[in-house]
């Protein structure tokens, strides 16, 4: 995510903070400062940080559950609206998705229980005379209960939406399960929007959040539904021109101009790609007087992918907007992705 900064690395997972999160923290600090001076500001910011620590632990709950199924989580980003654990991929089996979704709120249940036990014990010890000092921890307990309640709403992008989808997917096709879960979310969004006129305006915010969450999940499921069985070989371009190594740059440019590609693989005698070269690089080299040089000196490193890779796995691993060479098992080039320069 842009404007996110790495602040820590825990168990191989990068913890990032989005710049807007710091702005929100500063805003809260200012509000608390106006109400209670420096002490108020410190307490207010301290509480906000503790709250987001709970959100962070919630995301680690998802990440560790996913790890149990061999799914990596490269990073967790804290945003003002909460945390986002970026899982490398979604679990394939509904029961796994169910457990990964539940693991987040489960962490908040544990935190809430620990706080409850601690607060109850302290109230007993102090004989009910020391209650006002518990304000911070009691608020934290309340916020953890709210986090669990919020995520229990059966709508994307809340964990409840994933739980609902996983439960449905145990009985039906994944795309259909997602469609139903997303529709439930959209109905709830309308209900929240209507209720917001009579109740807290916060409901309108949730309504918008839930509505777009449903849209996004539907789009992803349709993509995945369509792409699930397909392989790289179904989408790659197999009608491409290549430049043999040792071709002089001038010849390579003539070849390049005759085709409609922007980027060309440079291939050796065994038909293995040694790199790629753009028509722009060829033009520049000719203009600079390097026309007699072999084109391979201009070749840039290229990403490679096996031709039988399923499309869904490929989407997770290939970089966007850079040329990718598709290879067969013996490393020979059989196609290209993103050849339009
Ligand atoms: Zn969650």
Description:
- The chain is of the alpha/beta class.
- It is 55% helix and 14% strand.
- The protein contains 10 helices and 10 strands.
- The chain has helices at residues 19-67, 94-125, 135-152, 159-169, 174-195, 202-227, 232-235, 249-258, 279-287, 311-317; strands spanning 4-10, 13-18, 75-79, 82-86, 243-244, 263-267, 273-278, 303-306, 324-327, 333-337.
- It has a 4-stranded mixed beta sheet.
- β6 (263-267) and β7 form a beta hairpin.
- The longest helix has 49 residues, at 19-67.
- The radius of gyration is 27 Å and the shape is elongated.
- The two termini are 25 Å apart.
- The relative contact order is 0.07.
- Zinc ion binds next to α1.
Count of beta strands = 10
Integer average pLDDT? 83
Helix content: 55-70%
> What structural category arises from helix and sheet content?
alpha/beta
The coarse overall form would be elongated
The amount of beta strand, in percent, is 5-15%
Sequence stretches where pLDDT stays below 50 over 5 or more residues: none
Give the ligands present.
zinc ion
What is the helix tally?
A: 10
Radius of gyration: 27 Å
Euclidean distance between termini CA atoms: 25 Å
Q: Helix-strand pattern, N to C?
A: EEHEEHHHHHHEHEEHEHEE
Going across the major beta sheet, what is the strand order?
1-2-3-4
Largest sheet entry: 4 strands, mixed
